[in-house]
């Protein structure tokens, strides 16, 4: 084997590290042989960028499916159930408070804590304020398709919402138009993807339970948000620097934290469960406070009378729960004997 072929094989081996070790042990040599044959037939001594991207992307997908295989179908369905309820809640709440509510009207809309109005351009979307309304409508439609057992359409709608949500925010930043902050839309993408990890309810009682849970949770959550908004505070809903008690920032963080709590608990083994329960109980007050107001450590101005107990760093909460979920998933025993090829 000449030097160029050896370097090419080394490059392929490095790219193949994206695949799980078990897959590499079973099929790695054969796969590299095929790649070398293709490169030899095309008279190439180096891999193409698209080839490496395809290898790494497929490997990451295979690794994700490998980890997902550690979780039973029932638990994945519970995760999908929870994510579906949360996406419906956020879509309805933010459609009402950020897009279509009586306080969101041209001429009265304010996006700065100082109340000086806004400098971004508003889109002409009929009764709506930003392009995020299209994402909310996709999520609501995906929820309805779940109830109607339109599985293929449901999957397409959730994937479209997951892909389009961050693009709405980025487009707003690049063009100077009104749009929710990026972390808000990324949370929606995360929940939309989690909603697809399990199968939707196949029985009538399951669909009734999903509808009841979504309607009750959305009604209670929206009512709480409206109750906490008073006067002009509602006009700061999308502003990431808002000092209002409730806005898109706090609601999406609360939804993400709640989803991660469910993930941590469901992915924990019997031995891990006591420890993860202790962690969840420790963070429960912070999550509850997120539903009704921002953590003091995240507000630019400390609210009057705010106790120092709440001077938390919200990213620490999300990072800790994310680390717990990933750790529980990695340490969870793998029950399958063989791994299907990607």
Automatic annotation (TrEMBL):
Keyword entries, A-Z: Membrane, Transmembrane, Transmembrane helix
Organism per entry: Arthrobacter sunyaminii
Domain of life: Bacteria
The keyword Secreted is assigned to this record: no
UniProt-recorded name of the protein: Uncharacterized protein
Highest classification ranks of the organism: Bacteria, Bacillati, Actinomycetota, Actinomycetes, Micrococcales
Transmembrane segments: 78-103, 123-145, 157-176, 182-201, 208-228, 248-266, 273-292, 312-331
